[in-house]
Amino acid sequence: MHKEMKAFFVSVMLLLLVLTGCAGNDSAAPDSSGSDSSGSESNEPADPFGAYEEPITIKIGQELDPSDTSLPAEDSPLDNQFTRSVKENLNIDVEHYFTASPANYDQKVSLAIASNDLPDAMIVGPVELRQMYEAGQLEDLTQVYENYASPAIKRIIEGTNGIALESATFDGKIMAIPNVQLQADGVHLLWIRQDWLDKVGLEAPKTVDELKAVAKAFVEEDPDGNGQADTIGLAGPDTSNKLYATFLESTNNLYGFDGIFSAFGAYPGFWVEGEGGDPVYGSTLPETKEALSALRDMYAEGLIDREMAVREDSDQSVISGQTGMFFAPWWMGYGPLADAITQNPDANWQAYALPLNADGEYTPHLSTPTSNYVVVKKGYEHPEAAMKILNNLLDNESTFSPDKGGPGYYPLRLVFAPSDETEFTVKALREVMAGTKTPEDFKDMPEYKLLVSDVETVKTVKKEPYDDLNIEHWDPQADMGVWTRMYSLLVGGSPLVDTEINGVYSELYSQTKTMEQRWVNLKKLEDETFLKIIMGTEPLDSFDTFVEDWKSQGGEQITGEVADITSE
Amino acid sequence: MYNKGFAKHYYLMLLPGLIWLFIFSIVPMFGIVIAFQNYNPVQGILGSEFVGLDTFEYMFSLNDTASIFMNTISIAVMKIIGNLVIPLIFALMLNELKHMIIKRSIQTIVYLPHFLSWVILGGIILDIFSFQGPINQILGFFGIDAILFFGRADLFPFLVVGSDIWKEFGFNTIIYLAALTGINPALYEAASIDGASRSRMLWHVTLPGIRTTVVLLSVLGLGNVLNAGFDQIFNLYNPLVYSTGDIIDTWVYRAGLLNMQYELATAVGLLKSVAGFILISVSYFLAYRLTNYRIF
């Protein structure tokens, strides 16, 4: 009895807190874009954009790419347009607790968790998030989210039908701030050297068979004209990439074979609906074996990069002009293509929503809306500082110049994007270029934070005719930063707008209990078997052994858990 | 030669080493407890829940366990033998060379790779054996199809052992050369007076003269092989060669640090101690049998 009273009292208190927090927000910041934020209304703690009166310090773990040379010479990773914005608007000093290159960041995070030697805040993935929650290392951010998340961020996070927030909620408490990423990041398009296609006299391949024919022509007919047999038909994953995106990492897989698998109706790494309606693991289904068989043939014929899986960095083969095709998301202008075009102005990379399946449909796998989280160390004095830094990012993102440092330098940067941002922006750009709308028509859309600058700058790099996207109708030298974004949007985003996408979602995008112990080994078994099948060092039928091993080494149990979760 | 009072100094000199050993090798051994726990980094070793032998049961149900254990032993043994025989032969050949300048230059050139880290050498070796690299160019000259050397699980252990020998043989050679200069020249004179040929002198004077050095190096090498494989293999391997190239250290690194399976990584790490214990026991036994070399 006593206990129940106490629980009731606490929950009423919580409810009150939450309600007042929400109400305070709504009245304080009706318009997030116009918030000139030095706490002018009042010094209520719940001001998402308010600056601290005394400077506070936040020590973060940050991923820094040592090959990123985008910062101006006078700036440093701790003193640049992004950190200055955080300091000026919020009076927060950002310090590094650790930094790591992209290749080593996950390892640093794991090490920090294992040794319980944590920064005040950092970005983690879903697996680390659960690990940290169970280890009791996280500050409860329920209040922080309710009171300090800016209305725009709340709209974006809640626009995922609760999926994003749910994935960061444990036992009813919000333990991390989830990102919301573009739907477009999960669609792995086929990128082709159009100039090579023209040279060998072929069209963009509609089916897997046509794709093989193109790859064959690219390998055998010396499309780069250097007289050597050194061209690669289809690039393959390098040592740090995956054969396909999975339910735990469902976006931004570079150089995988996602497109080929989905053309066979195979969704390895995804939980798909089986015959009886229960979830089954796509990697164990016959369609996957069929797709592996096709890839195996392609590899044996030399159509796929023969050094895949051993290569350190597949970017290099694209930049140096050896590669004719690869699978990757829409943003390749931000990826290797900017360097490729600098090396060779004729490299005319175009993107297609291809290949199609046997019924002529495009059926890629689709991603979860959230994959990264900002977590705050238990006991950090100002947990809301992390939230404020994120508010500031969304509020000011369009004012940052790509010439003065890449977005990766923003501390604790999470992507907050309405899931259709790419597609929406492409349509807007087209209307502006066609003259049916003017940049002024897009002023009032704070969630699409780059939209205004996009529609204003597109014509600096895109030459007429505006609907011809071949590289000769671009002017990258006019402004490389703008070109990067516009080429990604118009070339990479257009197929997403113009194609009917019959995508497939995974039934689950998070870990179950048994996965914590068993998944690493099961995934290793899967990765090795598939890689060996494709590269011809093991027979195709080792797939059947894999399926049996997978089931007996915990897969069966995990499938049951997934069914329990999805049937809830 | 020495009495009891003299020996005390030796024991005193041993003390810093023993303290070092205690702090860095004995104390961390308590971490083995993690293998029997459901380890939680916040609660630490003292606070985590005990689960008994669960982790070990799971470990032995994995296909990996047997293969990484065997890989570790086989690569270690091959390295020990290679690192013993090749430098020895090379040192003996160099010793026969009478032209001092040539001898010194060869000596200098072959021991240079010893000073490069595996991060650098790994990159160089991967390039040399890549499709466009010189090895495949030479093979192509003889009409042999290019081979993806570092994608071949059957070749990987030999590439690892070969490259390790290539890196270290120059350095080991110098140690042997030093031992060779320590042989009393009078022995050679006596042998030649007795009418021994050069090959006879090699067999009956040179080899017995450096026998203790050979044994000492091999015993010392054993302790290091299980540790020193990590840098090299980590910089050379990829998923295609895990089946034959994954050793205990690399596996523990992936399981423990990358995948946060602390209990499992610790349990497998115990295997490494077992492997090390076996190797050292065997070599100590052999050293005692072959050369009557013993520590205690």
Automatic annotation (TrEMBL), chain A:
<dbReference type="Pfam" id="PF01547">
    <property type="entry name" value="SBP_bac_1"/>
</dbReference>
<feature type="compositionally biased region" description="Low complexity">
    <location>
        <begin position="26"/>
        <end position="46"/>
    </location>
</feature>
<keyword id="KW-0732">Signal</keyword>
<dbReference type="InterPro" id="IPR006059">
    <property type="entry name" value="SBP"/>
</dbReference>
<feature type="region of interest" description="Disordered">
    <location>
        <begin position="26"/>
        <end position="50"/>
    </location>
</feature>
<feature type="signal peptide">
    <location>
        <begin position="1"/>
        <end position="28"/>
    </location>
</feature>
<dbReference type="InterPro" id="IPR050490">
    <property type="entry name" value="Bact_solute-bd_prot1"/>
</dbReference>
<protein>
    <submittedName>
        <fullName>Putative aldouronate transport system substrate-binding protein</fullName>
    </submittedName>
</protein>
UniProtKB/TrEMBL annotation, chain B:
<keyword id="KW-1133">Transmembrane helix</keyword>
<dbReference type="GO" id="GO:0055085">
    <property type="term" value="P:transmembrane transport"/>
</dbReference>
<dbReference type="GO" id="GO:0005886">
    <property type="term" value="C:plasma membrane"/>
</dbReference>
<keyword id="KW-1003">Cell membrane</keyword>
<keyword id="KW-0813">Transport</keyword>
<dbReference type="Pfam" id="PF00528">
    <property type="entry name" value="BPD_transp_1"/>
</dbReference>
<feature type="transmembrane region" description="Helical">
    <location>
        <begin position="12"/>
        <end position="36"/>
    </location>
</feature>
<feature type="transmembrane region" description="Helical">
    <location>
        <begin position="138"/>
        <end position="162"/>
    </location>
</feature>
<feature type="transmembrane region" description="Helical">
    <location>
        <begin position="208"/>
        <end position="230"/>
    </location>
</feature>
<protein>
    <submittedName>
        <fullName>Putative aldouronate transport system permease protein</fullName>
    </submittedName>
</protein>
<feature type="transmembrane region" description="Helical">
    <location>
        <begin position="115"/>
        <end position="132"/>
    </location>
</feature>
<comment type="similarity">
    <text>Belongs to the binding-protein-dependent transport system permease family.</text>
</comment>
<dbReference type="InterPro" id="IPR000515">
    <property type="entry name" value="MetI-like"/>
</dbReference>
<keyword id="KW-0472">Membrane</keyword>
<feature type="domain" description="ABC transmembrane type-1">
    <location>
        <begin position="69"/>
        <end position="283"/>
    </location>
</feature>
<dbReference type="InterPro" id="IPR050809">
    <property type="entry name" value="UgpAE/MalFG_permease"/>
</dbReference>
<feature type="transmembrane region" description="Helical">
    <location>
        <begin position="264"/>
        <end position="287"/>
    </location>
</feature>
<feature type="transmembrane region" description="Helical">
    <location>
        <begin position="169"/>
        <end position="188"/>
    </location>
</feature>
<feature type="transmembrane region" description="Helical">
    <location>
        <begin position="68"/>
        <end position="94"/>
    </location>
</feature>
<dbReference type="InterPro" id="IPR035906">
    <property type="entry name" value="MetI-like_sf"/>
</dbReference>
<keyword id="KW-0812">Transmembrane</keyword>
